[in-house]
Amino acid sequence: MPNPELIVMLTRHDYTVENAIEVFEQCKNSNALYWGIKENPLPHDVMKRLFARMKECGKRTILEVVAYTESEGLAGAQLAAECGCDILLGTCYYDAINDFCKEHNIRYMPFVGNISGRPSVLSGDIDDIVKEAKDYANKGVYGLNLLGYRYTGDATALNNTLVKQVNAPVCIAGSVDSYKRLDEIKEAQPRFFTIGSAFFDKRFGETPEEQINNVCNYMEK
Is the pTM of this model over 0.85? Predict the structure, then answer.
């Protein structure tokens, strides 16, 4: 089984940083393969330019959409298609979004559980969240976006239970901000995890590139 893979999010507090292109250029030679941003607040032409540059550098691209209605989620999926993204993270699940992603060869990883606010918070019973995740997997989504460390209950129990019981790739997204949580992610063994704000808060070192490499190297130990 491969080690959980880092998705670098050029985001802080669930919004894309204004200087995302500049930060990417500083870090493009780091060890991270997967890179993403949120749907706000960059203009769409800037987003398209950034994703095109990521592709030029051989990266795999992710758009994470913090949206709870079908219309907003579908608009996010359409934006991901326009930007040529590999993965759509987020949105509450809707059949229309799932169908759109399948038609456009986008890997769809919707939220699971009760999601609210921005930065997003996850609530709900663990068994209910796992059942919901299994239902989405049965509908053919590529995987699930689990806001494990934004959970109002026992995050470690939720992460471990869902990854173990759901036969689909899981991304643990949000508030991964310490080596202790990296150890927990190693134990849970999701397919992906995201780090955004913690890099800008210098939780894993000084420069963004140093921190990205520190995390990548740590996960390979």
Answer: yes
